[in-house]
Amino acid sequence: MLVSLATAARKRSGQLEWQLYESLGIAPGDRGASAAAVLDNFRLFGAPHALILTTEKNLGTYGAIDCGVYVGALTLAAQSLGLGLIPQAALAMYAPLMRAQLGIPENRAVVLGASIGFPDETHPANQFRSRRARLEDAVQWVTDGPS
User: What angle do CA 12, 17, 23 make, to 5 degrees?
Assistant: First the structure.
């Protein structure tokens, strides 16, 4: 069952990507326009600032979880101040470049980046709301304990 949930999650992720593109006026299968939209990640979606979240490599999964919790709280804190924060996993793909340019030591894992600034509330991406999976498609309930 866990494998099928992971497969379903990957499928939903791909569907979500195309739903966002649709909100931006990009037709399904338009690889050129979708590639241009992906490049906006590296232009920080027009935001004036970015941050890079790192964790000690030896913390492994736990460090990544801590970063996820931190960026969630930071996103809400930014919003309370009228700012927008966009977590961006895509920025972590360039960890070697960031290490060289920002002096990030090798013992730190680059988990993600985030763009931060005042949001453009009229931008179609800021109007986008994802469709949610049914609970039974996203959760595996375990009701029987060990015998």
Answer: 125
For the chain, the first-to-last Cα distance in angstroms comes to 20
What is the value of pTM for the model shown? 0.76
Neighbours of 103 (CB within 10 A): 7
Residue with tokens 């015998």: 147
Of 116, 130, 145, which is closest to residue 21 (Cα–Cα)? 130
Q: Provide CB contacts within 8 A for 49, sequence distance 6+.
A: 115, 116, 117
Residue-range domain boundaries for the chain:
2-138
The 10s digit of each residue's pLDDT in 111-123 is 999 999 999 988 8
The CATH class given to the 2-138 domain equals: alpha beta
